[in-house]
Structures are given as C-alpha cells and as structure tokens.
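ping. complex inputs:
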Amino acid sequence: MSSVFHQHTEDARIIKINMMDINNEIQEFNHQNRASHEFQFQYIAELLSRKGIDVQVIIEKIKAFQIAIPSWALGTGGTRFGRFPRGGEPRSLEEKIEDVGLLHQLNRASDSISLHIPWDIPRDPAALKSQLSAHGLTIDSVNSNTFQDQPNQSLSYKFGSLCHTDVAVRQQAIDHNIACIEHGKALDSKVLTVWLADGSNFPGQQHFRQAWQRTADSLAEIYQAMPDDWTMLIEYKPYEPNFYSMVIPDWGTSYSLCQHVGPNAQVLVDLGHHLPNTNIEQIVARLMHFGRLGGFHFNGSMYGDDDLTTASIKPYQFFLIFNELVDAMTDPRVKNPSLAWMIDASHNVKDPLEDLLQSVQNILSTYAKALLVDRALLSEAQENNDVLAAEELLRDIFATDTRAIVAEAARQAGGAMEPIGLYRSLGIREKLIEKRGAKSMATGL
Ligand SMILES: [Mn+2]
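pong. complex structure:
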C-alpha cells in the first residue's frame, strides 16, 4: 500500500490531505483474481442472456447506485452494557472522511457521507470540501440530534424536544435544527434528516394530540428555514428510548407530518424501526405510490432497532423490499422523488469498515436481484391470480446468485472485486491502529 500525501490549493491556502491511495493494489488484486471471477461472471451473464437480459444493462444500474455512509458507523458500536472498540477509529471529521474515502475506493459505491450534528460540526468548511472532492465524496444529509443533552445546553430534552410542553425547549430544538441546515449549506448538503426520540414512558405522561400538534408546528418552522431545493426527511420508530409511546412511531404519523409541513418533506424508512414481522415491503410500496418516500436507512433486524448488518437476518424480506422499490422506481406512473440511500448501523463485534463493505455488497447484490425480476410476467401472474406463478417467479430470482454481477460492476468502476478480501490482505485495520492508536475512539454513538 502506498500512503500518498496529496496537496491541494484553494483560496490561497495549502490544504494537506492525508489520503491512502490503494488504486494500484486494487488493480493488482483484481488481476490476480480475474480467472475465478470470469468463470462465475460468464455463467451468470449466459444465464441472463438466455432469459433475454443484457447483463451490462444491470451492471450500469449497479454502478450508478451509491449508498451514503453515516459518520457514526465508522467507530465500533456498543450497547448500554458496553463497547469493545478495536482501535484505529477516526478521531475527527477529517479522519471519518478518510475512512469513507477508503471504502469508496474499495467498492466505488459509497460516494457520500452523512453528518450528525453536533458530533460532526464542520470547523473549516472550505478545507472539508477540498478533502471531500479529493476523495470523490459529497455530503449526503445532515442529521439533527435532540435525543440527548449536550454540554453547555441551557434546557434539557429529558421530556422531549420538538414536542416539549415548554415553548422555550421547543425553540431550542428548532434553533438546533436550523443550525444543522446552516452547517449543511456550508458543505453543499441538501437534506435534513430528523429523527425524534420524543415520546413517553408511562400512561398519562403525555397528551397525544398536543404532542403531535407541537411537533408538527415545530417541524413547520424548521421547514420554513430550509432552502427550496432541500428535502426534510422525517424518520419514525415504534419504541426506544421511550417505551410507552413515541410521538412519531410509524410511517402514517411521518406521512401526516410531511403533509402538514409541505411538499419537500418526505418519509424516511429505517429497516430496523419496525415491530417484528411488520410488512415493510408494503409500507415502501404505499409511500412510493403516494410520492412520499424520501429516504432509506439500511440495516438488519432480529428483534428491533438492532442495527445489524443489512440482510444478515432476513435476506428474503430484504429482497421483497427491494423488489417493491425497483417496481416503483421503474414505473413511469409513480411520481416519487429519487431516494436518499444510507446505511444506518452500529456494530459491536465486527470491524466497522468491514461491516460497511459487507452491507454495501449485500445491498448491491439484492438490488441486482430486484432488477432481474420480469415485471411483465409478474404482473400477468398477479392479474390472473396465479398465486404460485407469482411467488415462484420471485423465489427463482431470490435464489439467483448475483455476486459476480456486483463484482464486475466494481471492477468496471475501478473498485475491488472482493473489497473485504483486499481490505484484509492489505492489513488496513492494522495500519489505522498504527496511525491513530489502539485506543482511539470515534465521536458519536
Ligand atoms: Mn435511521
């Protein structure tokens, strides 16, 4: 691995960007693994060709699909019982950008980063923008944080933020969201993501209708401060940290708040923010039908907001969700804006960078499957109530191994065909520990 020190001049200042350049290593690695890849890729290409599908059309769609990486996923996650960091974690926003730059070099599918304010307040936007462009990255969304109190904060969010009974607390939370918009503007972001922990822990604690109304009015005020070309994403979650009621527990409430604030407000679906066995694919289809699905947070869930690796637990459900997404995305009658894709996960036992690479691979291979579904045949089976034919059509595609298509897309885009294999063979984690220390801790969660 060659560690290159790039220099970039902007605004008469010299900004030093410490960038790990592994492009030569990627080419060499791909070359070494070429024969085995070709064998697998030719097989799937031939299989698709017999079905009348041009594999290159699918590859181009995979290459265009980019998934944002949240700044808070770059460190080891934890639970309230403990955290077991493995070292080399990014100590600053600049190092977080370095890590995402590295991921993007490896998979060519992670070209943006989401920030959480105040964990990632940009101190020098011009320098950050230079660093971002040197890595081929942009800022995806800015995420506000009114779920915990910050040092020096005058009023507490213990009993809520945008829904609080005290107008002064609501105003503080509104001001914080507007400050997030300002930070985002400085870095050319165009999305504000709002997730509220607001709710109640005991029956009788909160007046449900008033809590909704106060939240709606607070969001409307934030919305007014947003530039016209921005989107507000409103995320929902059924429980945690509040265990009796959440002000925004479900997609219906998010949807009602979007309708209240204006056309540039959209619902954000986080895969882990549902009760067990919720039919998420149906929610996705409904929201896209209404033109109100704005963003997507990928992760895996066994019981709740587990933030496990995407598709690690229920790969078939994940495929069914992607099937609905692609169905709506390819239907000209659907008037839904393009979606903001992001991984929202936090990991206790895996190397966070390996986990992100794994998540992206799972997302892309599932997206590839959804692209292979013969929509005309599926529609015909549905219209004729041929239940078995419709189901088997989906099951056949689900059982198709699309990993070689994803590897080929990465190769064509200049990335590694096997990103995790290369990451390990280059000893990147060891090098990060050497550089940042065994005890370095990422800011944030
Ligand atoms: Mn989320």
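Residues 352-372 form the longest helix (21 residues).
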